[in-house]
Specification:
Layout: E1 2-7, E2 10-15, H1 29-51, H2 55-60, H3 64-79, H4 90-109, H5 113-116, H6 121-152, H7 154-157, H8 162-169, H9 175-188, H10 194-201, H11 207-220, H12 226-241, H13 247-262, H14 280-285, E3 287-294, E4 297-303, H15 306-316, H16 336-353, E5 368-372, E6 379-385, E7 391-392, H17 394-403, E8 410-411, E9 417-418, H18 429-438, E10 455-458, E11 473-476, H19 478-487, E12 490-494, E13 497-501
Antiparallel strand pairs: 1-2, 3-4, 5-6, 6-7, 8-9, 10-11, 12-13
Helix pairs in contact: 6-9, 8-9, 9-11, 11-12, 11-13, 12-13
């Protein structure tokens, strides 16, 4: 069906929208009739102006100038869709746009498999790309609205957290997605958050990827100066917006930013002002997080500065975590992870059961090695734990002298402990500590049992006239101690290196 009109000698044909609209027209017949009357009146007025000899009108109507003028109007409206004199007031534009988009998506989503089977391969591919872009732009709009929610405090007004408020409005949103949204919104309030904010609003990255960047940057920002934080944020945002960088690689980029920040040489000497100031970066990055694994189980993720990690290592590698024979004499049924957990819980239980009171048993053993000047006794380098995993400043190690035993150990030029104990059958406590410093763990090839769970073995057996001297002692776990005696194996100690002759 079509309509035609004639004015100024020019006949134009207009197609009825009902001929091509895929959905029923929302306009009633009465409204259409009223509109037709108004259109007829306007057409009569225009024809009257042309008939009266309005030369300018006759010259412009239907000409290339008229088409150019109309194209200019369309371009102006497209460039400024929120123009109050154009498409409408912003609240109306937001509501109308979302309503129109929802209607269009409902129509497309209403196509069943039979309908979609008629779409050619190129059409399916193009539709998938378009749907992906729509989703990303939708996330950008959701983020822009979430920024307003956070700024206005709409969630706090009803006593909800931001994540809970979002999930109440969008029940299909997962906690992970809502948390990512919160991270990006929080990042937008930081001085370095502008690039990430723009990337999400413009649909250049997804909320999930942006949330990953925001989470890392919110943490790193505690330890970075403004310029470095801005640089780190630009690097991470660029990675999040790159189609060539996968989600896994994006995680590697974020992790690398963290390790680059931490991989700075520890303080080898005193602070310039001679004050005991801990390294600010690890302290700023310390964290403890938890999340539910399932019914009855919660996972804790702990990031501790090396100075604090030494204390934790002393617990999970100490006597409290050592295997305990079963009542019937059998092996401990717990694995190493379970014993470490039980050791931590034992320490916590003691503290909670006796607040302010000293524990009834000995503290967990923390072995810390720090080089010192023999003449002055002053520390000359960094300190490290017996496992070698935790390194921190020499002055930070001084804190442990106040809460534990201090055992001087003189090390030779090759790292071997010297001047320890006296000769007797069993290694003295001082000698065993020296072995922990030198060997750190079971010395049998391929074994990683911590030294605190090991035994001191005589390389020259005591029954064979061997001395209990530090150069003739090595650490062996109970299992390999038995193997060495059964196979009569020998080893050589050079400096702090133990070589077994298998």
């Amino acid at each position: 069906m079509s309509f035609s009109s004639s004015r100024v000698g020019i006949e134009e044909e207009f197609f009825d929208p009902a001929d091509w609209l895929p959905v029923p027209s929302p306009v009633s017949q009465e409204e259409a009739a009223a509109a037709a009357v108004v259109a007829a009146e306007q057409l009569a007025t225009l024809n009257a102006r042309a008939g009266d000899g309005d030369g300018d009108w006759v010259d412009v109507a239907g000409s290339a100038q008229a088409e150019a003028a109309w194209a200019d109007i369309v371009a102006t409206l497209a460039a400024d869709p929120l123009d109050g004199e154009g498409l409408g007031w912003p609240p109306e534009v937001l509501s109308t746009s979302l309503s129109t988009a929802a209607t269009a998506l409902d129509v497309a989503a209403g196509l069943d498999d039979d309908d979609l089977a008629r779409v050619l391969d190129d059409g399916v591919r193009d539709a998938v790309e378009a749907a992906g872009k729509i989703r990303t732009r939708g996330e950008g709009l959701l983020y822009a609205l979430a920024v307003q929610v956070h700024a206005r405090g709409l969630h706090t007004a009803v006593g909800l957290s931001f994540v809970d408020w979002v999930r109440a409005c969008c029940p299909w949103t997962t906690i992970t997605d809502a948390t990512s949204l919160r991270h990006v919104v929080e990042a937008s309030t930081r001085h370095w958050g502008a690039p990430l904010d723009a990337a999400v609003r413009e649909g250049r990255t997804s909320l999930a990827r942006a949330g990953r960047v925001a989470k890392v940057m919110l943490r790193l920002g505690r330890a970075l100066d403004p310029d470095r934080a801005q640089a780190y944020a630009e690097i991470a945002t660029g990675a999040a917006c790159s189609e060539k960088i996968s989600d896994a690689d994006l995680g590697k980029v974020c992790h690398q930013l963290l390790t680059d920040l931490l991989d700075e040489a520890p303080d080898e000497g005193k602070d310039p002002d001679d004050k005991d100031v801990p390294d600010p970066v690890p302290r700023a990055l310390r964290s403890l997080r938890c999340h539910r694994l399932g019914e009855g189980m919660t996972r804790f993720v702990l990031d501790a500065p090396d100075a604090d990690a030494a204390m934790l290592e002393g617990i999970i590698n100490g006597p409290l975590a050592a295997p305990v024979p079963a009542p019937d004499g059998g092996k401990d049924a717990r694995d190493a992870d379970q014993r470490a957990y039980d050791a931590v819980m034992t320490v916590l239980s003691r503290g909670l059961a006796n607040p302010g009171a000293p524990a009834s048993s000995a503290r967990a053993s923390v072995i810390i090695t720090v080089k010192a000047d023999p003449a002055t006794g002053e520390p000359t380098g960094t300190a490290e734990t017996a496992t070698g995993r935790a390194r921190f400043t020499a002055k930070a190690a001084g804190r442990y002298a106040c809460i534990g035993d201090l055992t001087p150990v003189v090390l030779g030029p090759m790292g071997e402990p010297l001047d320890l104990g006296r000769t007797r059958r069993l290694a003295s406590p001082g000698q065993f500590k020296a072995l922990l410093v030198r060997d750190r763990q079971c010395t049998f090839p391929g074994c990683s049992v911590p030294g605190t769970w090991c035994e001191a073995h005589h390389l020259i057996w005591w029954c064979r006239a061997g001395d209990t001297d530090i150069l003739l002692l090595v650490l062996l776990c109970p299992r390999h101690h038995t193997v060495v005696h059964e196979r009569d194996l020998t080893a050589t100690v050079v400096g702090d290196v133990v070589t077994w002759h298998l």
